[in-house]
């Protein structure tokens, strides 16, 4: 579960810089309006010190109007120049500019990938496009040296055994990754159980790739507290996993069958955000519900373990837009993995994407979300209320933070129903 609760970058930077730029432009425009009005007021209200001929007065007025026009034009040019400078600064700060392929340390494979390629049969009649444009995250530009290191491989050869390098790039916002033309390391899958027996059978140590990890077996992992939701979560026989979601330890632990009953029998496909070792998806599979589990391999081979259980792991960070169409899920389940670095803006982005993929009438199950303080709880509560979800269950309680302070902390569990919007 810890795979999605990482502090991925500083999501507030773009908001602070954008706000700064917008404020500067607004101040400049207000100043120009005030200045223009002052010039106009001076031109049309100022009286000459001595009586003058009406023609001379007309000429002076004409000169004043010309002067005002010149000043206004100058101010408008300054505003336009300032806006261009601010836009360029924003591009440089946020990394919107394309990667400079002329750098000497850029890998040749990266250069080839980032070039535009003409479609082999010419213009596509349905979409109108004429070339293939590479897709790569804009923050890759800020990690171009690291990215070039990742792209140094032999074409049609074996990929370097460096998945941890790829994950670091993903966590820096550099996704999708451009590596394409090499063969990933294969691991023996001997000893896998057939479905559905695989859901609750132990996974063998030889069926996953342990490179880049401190632990080299599941026995080692089961002795660690990887996150609030993954304490011994790879022990499917003797640990807590075999009773999760079917046996409650506190009032904040909702049972699968109770939540599904709230859905009126309409739960068929779901999404589990940061599902740890996949036990929620396994419980739902027992009830013929298909659940996709988003995860990352942080300190443990979560993705491979979930796949070994016959379930569907989705390898991506929560800074990434969910690769699903709108209104496709009947249920979205999330716990403290929803805490994306404690940034309110990033949480808002994530909530909007959850709302996008959840169908009208679908259920959003917030499961034991740790609220470090009252402010955090209020922030989440206000955000949920803005979406207009119906509160089917809402329980606030306390649980011991077994990973952090070890003290009781406030947790929020809720089942919310998405409304039908006009």
What can you see in these coordinates?
The structure is a single chain. With 422 residues, the protein is an alpha/beta fold. The chain has 3 domains: 13-94; 108-171, no CATH class; 191-417, Rossmann fold. It has 11 helices and 11 strands. It has helices spanning 13-45, 54-94, 108-114, 144-150, 163-171, 218-221, 256-262, 279-286, 302-308, 344-357, 374-387; strands spanning 117-118, 131-132, 225-227, 230-231, 269-273, 290-295, 312-315, 329-334, 358-371, 390-400, 408-417. A 7-stranded mixed sheet has the order 7-6-5-8-9-11-10. Helix 10 (344-357) links the parallel strand 8 and strand 9. The longest helix is centred in the N-terminal third of the chain and has 41 residues, at 54-94. The two termini are 36 Å apart. The model is unreliable at 1-21 (pLDDT under 50). Belongs to the methyltransferase superfamily. Pfam families: Methyltransf_29. Its main location: membrane. One of its GO terms (biological process) is methylation. The chain crosses the membrane at residues 24-44.
Give keywords.
422 residues, Rossmann fold, 3 domains, seven-stranded mixed sheet, two-stranded antiparallel sheet, 11 helices, 36% helix, methyltransferase activity, methyltransferase
Beta content comes to 15-25%
Class by SSE composition: alpha/beta
Which superfamily, in CATH terms, is the homologous superfamily of the largest domain?
Vaccinia Virus protein VP39
CATH architecture of the largest domain: 3-Layer(aba) Sandwich
Biggest pleated sheet: 7 strands, mixed
Number of strands: 11
Number of helices: 11
CATH level 1 name of the largest domain = Alpha Beta
C-alpha termini separation:
36 Å
Helix content: 25-40%
* Low-pLDDT residue spans: 1-21
Order of helices and strands: HHHEEHHHEEHEHEHEEHEHEE
Our count of domains comes out at 3
CATH topology of the largest domain: Rossmann fold
- Label the overall shape: globular
Strand order of the largest sheet: 7-6-5-8-9-11-10
Gyration radius (Cα, Å) is: 29 Å
Q: Averaged pLDDT, please? A: 80
Subcellular location: Endomembrane system; Membrane
Family: Belongs to the methyltransferase superfamily.
Membrane topology: Single-pass membrane protein; Single-pass type II membrane protein
InterPro entries: Prob_Methyltransferase, Put_SAM_MeTrfase, SAM-dependent_MTases_sf
């Amino acid at each position: 579960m810890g795979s999605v609760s990482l502090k991925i970058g500083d999501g507030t930077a773009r908001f602070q810089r954008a706000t700064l730029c917008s404020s500067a432009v607004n101040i400049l425009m207000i100043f120009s309006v005030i200045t223009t009005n002052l010039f106009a007021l001076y031109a049309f209200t100022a009286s000459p010190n001595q009586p003058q001929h009406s023609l001379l007065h007309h000429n002076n007025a004409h000169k004043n109007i010309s002067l005002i026009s010149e000043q206004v034009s100058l101010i408008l040019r300054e505003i336009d120049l300032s806006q261009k400078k601010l836009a360029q600064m924003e591009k440089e700060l946020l990394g919107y500019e394309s990667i400079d392929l002329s750098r000497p340390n850029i890998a040749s494979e990266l250069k080839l990938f980032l070039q535009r390629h003409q479609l082999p049969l010419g213009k596509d009649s349905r979409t109108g496009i004429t070339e293939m444009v590479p897709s790569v995250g804009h923050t890759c530009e800020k990690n171009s040296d690291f990215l070039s290191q990742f792209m140094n491989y032999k074409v049609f050869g074996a990929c370097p055994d460096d998945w941890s390098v790829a994950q670091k790039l993903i966590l820096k916002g550099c996704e999708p990754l451009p590596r394409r033309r090499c063969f990933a390391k294969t691991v023996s899958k001997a000893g896998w159980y057939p479905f559905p027996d695989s859901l609750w059978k132990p996974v063998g140590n030889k069926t996953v790739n342990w490179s880049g990890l401190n632990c080299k077996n599941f026995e080692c992992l089961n002795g660690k507290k990887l996150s609030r939701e993954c304490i011994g979560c790879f022990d499917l026989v003797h640990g807590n996993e075999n009773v999760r979601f079917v046996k409650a330890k506190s009032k904040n632990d909702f049972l699968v069958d109770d939540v599904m009953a709230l859905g009126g029998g309409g739960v068929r496909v779901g999404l589990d955000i940061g599902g740890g070792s996949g036990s929620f998806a396994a419980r739902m599979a027992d009830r013929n519900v298909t659940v996709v589990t988003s995860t990352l391999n942080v300190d443990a081979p979560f993705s491979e373990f979930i796949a070994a259980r016959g379930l569907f792991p989705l390898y991506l960070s929560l800074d990434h837009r969910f690769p699903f169409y709108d209104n496709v899920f009947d249920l979205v389940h999330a716990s403290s993995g929803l805490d994306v670095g404690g940034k309110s803006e990033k949480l808002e982005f994530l909530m909007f994407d959850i709302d996008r993929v959840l169908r009208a009438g679908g259920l959003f199950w917030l499961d034991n979300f740790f609220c470090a303080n009252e402010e955090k709880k209020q922030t989440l509560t206000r955000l949920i209320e803005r979406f207009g979800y119906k509160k089917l269950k809402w329980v606030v309680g306390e649980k011991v933070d077994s990973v952090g302070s070890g003290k009781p902390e406030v947790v929020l569990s809720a089942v919310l129903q998405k409304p039908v919007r006009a």
